[in-house]
Specification:
By secondary structure, the chain is an alpha/beta fold. The strands form 3 sheets. Strands 2-8-7-6-5-3-4 form a 7-stranded mixed β-sheet, with helices on both faces. The chain is globular, with a radius of gyration of 21 Å. The structure holds pyridoxal-5'-phosphate. The site of pyridoxal-5'-phosphate has 14 residues, from helix 3.
């Protein structure tokens, strides 16, 4: 089996599963309980928080646990809107965000907020000039993804940060769900970024766990109100086995980051260099500069994406159409639409998404199967 759908989700690492199980069996008290079992659980919770903070070079009280990327994105967008509603009601984002951002923005729009979606070029990238032009006196949030989940474009976070230095009151949020462990940490954590969203299941932690980084002194209103866990900012009994597992997963992810990034880039290039030679192939992702090492999106012109996905599946190779969220809904990719890709080509898009465990041998196997399928599709067409 070759699993090339790591942007949809990753397999829980055995070490992480072991932590999850040990904590579930042995440290199952509620961190809020006053007795010794509660204290042990609380200590592990805070130890996990510190471990994550140390790995990212931030302060432990700047880390807030959530249920994943969707919650993190919802929280920063709506939490900013509520917190800063008396200062302004204008929010800026890009035309290529994950639905966790765009649907949160749309919900706010229906409540009277004003949303600007920055357009993108043919590589799916915003322009800094457009960002600068969009900023208004009533702008309260700029939210930009670090890595596009459909085609892997890196957004110019550092340049956007330089612009936003002139507007210190605006919250600056990065959706880094696809960006962690991909060699771009210094961009994600520069000194102008206020909030960052992460999701555990994209780096071998279990589903349903994630965290946000919130810079000290920056406030957003809580969305999950209740018992006040997470310093009154996010309520709900903590998912301690998953939190401890996620801390371990992050350590494993960042341990050999440069080597892992290189490995993914090499595998990506092995596929890129092969498929891009074919006449009827449209590449959306570029080979290297400006793109993440783990996502490759392209189309076999005239063949629907889901047909190609199922054809690869016959050979036990698992890929996807552009994103896991949109693939079952038969909607066209929002990123490719924003890039003004003609509909007939956009519906042919497929995504190969990698992990450090993937090998060049797997890429070569993929290429062999690609040759067979391309020949089959050419005959049919
Ligand atoms: C860029 C991006 N943001 C947010 C999310 C949502 O994360 P989760 O699946 O943890 O809710 C995803 C998931 O694919 C994503 O790719």
């Amino acid at each position: 089996m070759i699993y090339f759908d790591n942007s949809a989700t990753t397999k829980v690492a055995p070490e992480v599963l072991k932590t999850y199980q040990t904590v579930s069996e042995k440290i199952w008290g509620n961190p809020s309980s006053l007795h010794a079992m509660g204290e042990t659980a609380f200590n592990l919770l805070e130890q996990s928080r510190k471990q994550i903070a140390d790995l990212l070079n931030v302060k432990p009280h700047e880390i807030f646990f959530t249920s994943g990327g969707t919650e993190g994105d919802n929280w920063v967008v709506k939490g900013t809107a509520i917190e800063k509603r008396t200062f302004g009601k204008h929010l800026i984002t890009t035309a290529v965000e994950h639905p966790a951002i765009t649907n949160s923005m749309e919900q706010l729009r229906r409540l009277g907020y004003d949303i600007t979606y920055l357009p993108v070029d043919k590589e799916g990238r915003i322009s800094i000039k457009d960002l600068e032009a969009a900023i208004r006196p009533d702008t309260i949030l700029v939210s930009i993804m670090a890595v596009n989940n459909e085609i892997g474009t890196l957004q110019p976070i550092k340049e956007a940060s330089d612009v936003l230095k002139k507007y210190p009151k605006i919250h600056f949020h990065i959706d880094a769900v696809q960006g962690i462990g991909k060699g771009i940490q210094s961009a994600i954590f520069n000194d102008r970024v206020d909030f960052v969203t992460f999701s555990g299941h994209k780096f071998h932690a279990p589903r349903g766990i994630g965290f946000i980084y919130a810079r000290e002194g920056r406030r957003i209103a809580p969305l999950m109100t209740g018992g006040g866990q997470e310093k009154n900012q996010r309520s709900g009994t903590e998912n301690l086995p998953a939190i401890a597992g996620m801390a371990k997963a992050l350590r494993l992810l960042l341990k050999d980051e440069p080597a892992n990034v290189k490995q993914q880039q090499t595998v990506k290039e092995t596929i890129f260099d092969h498929v891009s030679k074919f006449k009827n192939v449209t590449m959306f992702t570029q080979r290297n500069d400006g793109f993440a090492p783990h996502i490759l999106c392209f189309a076999i012109n005239g063949v629907r994406g889901e047909t190609v996905v199922h054809a690869f599946e016959r050979y036990n190779i698992f890929i996807s159409t552009t994103s896991a969220c949109s693939s079952k809904k038969q909607v066209e990719s929002s990123t490719l639409a924003a890039m003004k890709t003609p509909d007939d080509i956009a519906t042919s898009a497929i995504r190969v998404s990698l992990d450090a465990d993937n090998t060049v041998a797997e890429a070569e196997e993929f290429n062999k199967v690609f040759d067979k399928l391309y020949a089959e599709f050419s005959k049919l067409n």
